[in-house]
Design goal:
Blueprint (H helix, E strand, L loop, with lengths): L8 H7 L42 H25 L3 H33 L17
Helix pairs in contact: 1-3, 2-3
């Protein structure tokens, strides 16, 4: 079997890399597709089964809250300094929010999967910490 150099969590997240081999096979589709944040079933390079990881939609709520806060603050600043009409606010902030959430969801899901792989996390498996009292 070939030697793989695993990417860092940030590399896996931002570039959509497989957490085991570092090849760009983490997602089912490219950046401009309907499968933007959908994981592939397995890495076509090393065969890592992505379905065994439980990423789910956990990052979605946090990203929506964080981006919503940032975009709301930006919209208020723009309103107080430039006073644009309401239709211009809608034209700017609604697409920016939607695109920001979708693309950051891809990054967050990639980071969570890479962290699960690196820490060997499994669903429902709670492991007691090692007993250091023997030292």
């Amino acid at each position: 079997m070939a030697e793989f150099t695993p990417p860092t969590i940030a590399q896996a997240a931002f570039q959509g890399l497989c957490p085991r081999c570092g090849q760009p096979h983490l997602f089912a589709g490219p950046l401009l597709s309907t499968h933007l944040a959908t994981f592939a079933e397995r890495c076509s390079a090393c065969g890592l089964d992505f379905t065994r990881f439980n990423v789910g939609d956990g990052p979605a709520a946090f990203l929506t809250l964080i981006l919503g806060t940032v975009i709301t603050i930006a919209a208020i600043i723009v309103e107080l300094t430039l006073h644009p009409p309401l239709w211009l606010h809608m034209l700017i902030w609604l697409p920016l929010t939607a695109v920001g959430v979708v693309y950051s969801l891809r990054i967050a899901k990639g980071a969570l999967m890479a962290a699960e792989y690196r820490n060997e996390a499994r669903e429902g498996a709670v492991v007691a910490p090692p007993d250091d009292q023997d030292a």
